[in-house]
């Protein structure tokens, strides 16, 4: 999985006044959970742009005064009016501890049902996956080549030994439905 480096500095004071002063200086207060104790730090708001405003999923390498932590974005809070980042929570990654993340689904292939007039519906754009950090994929490929009109692609076809998909087996990832044009053409063909 791809990683983004965020450079920051540890915070001593974590009160309201100190947090407000950080935000006025263009910094974002952050917390890193998962270790022995939470690590409070701050980083520039611009450093989060490639991590937050993208459909892709990344891990974060956090550098704080010479110490490096591998982490994943757990929660983010935005300002309700101007959408600036107010607070970010990270969860520390360990090589021997499984982590749960939402991984994007990428459809590949050309569906036979779409070629004859069906409509493709991409029901799930992200899947909740549990795996060791080394086995986390950048994305999950779903091959839709064999889908005819009325067929569905279930989560069970995307199973992999490296990770566990945390959705029920009957969850639909994509399906090809009958479009209005295909229904009209089928009705005319029957006449």
Summarize the SSE layout with pairings:
Blueprint: E1 3-10, H1 16-24, E2 27-33, E3 39-44, H2 49-52, E4 59-64, E5 67-78, E6 85-92, E7 99-108, H3 112-115, E8 119-122, E9 126-131, E10 140-143, E11 152-154, E12 164-165, E13 172-177, H4 180-190
Parallel strand pairs: 1-4, 2-6, 7-10
Antiparallel strand pairs: 1-3, 2-3, 4-5, 5-6, 7-9, 8-13, 9-12, 11-13
How would you characterize this protein structure?
One of its GO terms (cellular component) is cytosolic large ribosomal subunit. It comes from Tenacibaculum caenipelagi. Keywords: Ribonucleoprotein, Ribosomal protein, RNA-binding, rRNA-binding. This protein is mostly beta strands and 191 residues long. The chain folds into 2 domains: 3-93, Beta Barrel (Ribosomal Protein L25, Chain P); 100-190, Ribosomal protein L25, C-terminal domain (RNA Polymerase Alpha Subunit, Chain A, domain 2), CATH 2.170.120.20. Helices cover 15% and strands 43% of the residues. It is built from 4 helices and 13 strands. The protein has helices spanning 16-24, 49-52, 112-115, 180-190, and strands at 3-10, 27-33, 39-44, 59-64, 67-78, 85-92, 99-108, 119-122, 126-131, 140-143, 152-154, 164-165, 172-177.
């Amino acid at each position: 999985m791809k990683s983004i480096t965020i450079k920051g500095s540890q915070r001593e004071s974590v009160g309201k006044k100190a947090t407000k002063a950080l935000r006025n200086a263009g910094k974002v207060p952050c917390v890193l959970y998962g270790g022995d104790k939470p690590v409070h730090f701050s980083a520039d708001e611009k450093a989060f742009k490639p991590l937050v405003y993208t459909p892709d999923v990344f891990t974060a390498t956090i550098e704080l005064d010479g110490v490096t932590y591998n982490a994943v974005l757990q929660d983010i809070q935005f300002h309700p009016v101007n959408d600036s980042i107010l607070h970010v929570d990270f969860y520390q990654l360990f090589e021997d501890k499984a982590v749960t993340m939402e991984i994007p689904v990428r459809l590949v292939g050309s569906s036979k049902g779409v070629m004859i007039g069906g409509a493709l519906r991409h029901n799930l754009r992200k899947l909740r996956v549990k795996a060791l950090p080394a086995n986390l994929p950048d994305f999950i490929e779903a091959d839709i080549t064999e889908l005819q009109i009325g067929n569905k692609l279930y989560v069970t076809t995307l199973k992999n030994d490296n990770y566990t998909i945390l959705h029920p087996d009957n969850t639909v990832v994509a399906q090809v439905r009958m479009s209005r044009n295909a229904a009209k053409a089928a009705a005319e063909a029957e006449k």
